[in-house]
Design a protein that fits this description.
Elements (H helix, E strand, L loop, with lengths): L2 H7 L5 H9 L3 E3 L2 E2 L12 E3 L2 E2 L14 E6 L15 H5 L6 E3 L7 E7 L5 H5 L7 E7 L5 H9 L2 E2 L2 E2 L4 E4 L4 E6 L6 H8 L4 E9 L2 E2 L8 E3 L2 H7 L7
Parallel strand pairs: 7-13
Antiparallel strand pairs: 1-2, 1-3, 3-4, 5-7, 5-15, 6-7, 8-12, 8-13, 9-10, 11-12, 13-14
Helix pairs in contact: 1-2
Length: 237
């Protein structure tokens, strides 16, 4: 198997990103610096920056469909349109045809789910499911308790008032917010309502799925427990 595909299959990063890391001399195979286009076999030890690659959370072929969690970097667009430079499908470069579940602004980073199973997208996104989405936000001015209370009660955007949500402070210039909605640029518009400009926005959780230690550009397969939390009652995945 090609080294870049092996790295991608473990969920460390896309094949394109793997080639970049190989070219920079950050990848070794059995202790030797790897070259772009190298092949690897069963039993070979592949390391990035001296760290052994994590293996798949499930064996290949166990599931009918692909379900992955990606740490989307800033600058990647959540679209399947091949004409859009920096689209998320080309970025992940998965061997299966996958697409994002929901969206995350181009200027934001963090957790987004992708799948090859179109039948479950609406089931996950339906508003009545009230799937929590958790974000860490940094803004340009100090955040008061009054502002946080105002956000939690609801803010007028897009001709409607946002649903009640949960907020808590994160230092002087940041806050944590947990939503069950997914309106376009919702958090940025909520902050703007209080004269705040978002400088950094990271989504760290979608329902039972956490960003945890994934670095920007890395992805992993969802576990069975995570899928059961996203799709209660589903017999197979």
């Amino acid at each position: 198997m090609r080294l870049n595909k092996h790295i991608s299959d473990t969920g460390a990063c896309s094949r394109r990103e793997a080639d970049r890391l190989i070219g920079e001399g950050r990848v070794t195979v059995n202790g030797m610096r790897a070259r772009v286009g190298a092949e690897v076999g069963e039993g070979d030890t592949v390391m990035i920056d001296g760290q052994a690659l994590l293996q798949r959370t499930t064996a290949p072929g166990k599931r009918r469909h692909v379900y992955i969690a990606l740490h989307k970097p800033v600058g990647i667009t959540c679209t399947t349109e091949a004409s859009v430079k920096g689209n998320i499908v080309d970025f992940v470069d998965h061997r299966e045809r996958i697409f994002p579940i929901g969206r995350l602004d181009k200027d934001s980073e963090g957790l987004i789910l992708l799948t090859s199973n179109g039948d479950i997208v609406n089931a996950i996104l339906r508003a009545e499911n009230k799937l929590e989405k958790e974000y860490l936000v940094t803004v340009n001015h100090a955040v008061s308790q009054e502002v946080l209370r105002g956000m939690s009660r609801g803010v007028p955007i897009h001709g409607q008032t946002t649903l009640p949500c949960r907020t808590s402070p994160l230092g002087k210039f940041g806050f944590r917010i947990i939503l069950v909605q997914g309106l376009n640029r919702q958090i940025r518009l909520m902050a703007a309502h209080f004269k705040l400009r978002v400088k950094q926005l990271i989504r760290v959780r979608i329902g039972p799925v956490k960003l945890a230690h994934l670095k920007p550009g890395q992805w992993r397969n969802l576990t069975d427990a995570e899928l059961r939390g996203l799709l209660p009652g589903q017999a197979e995945f």
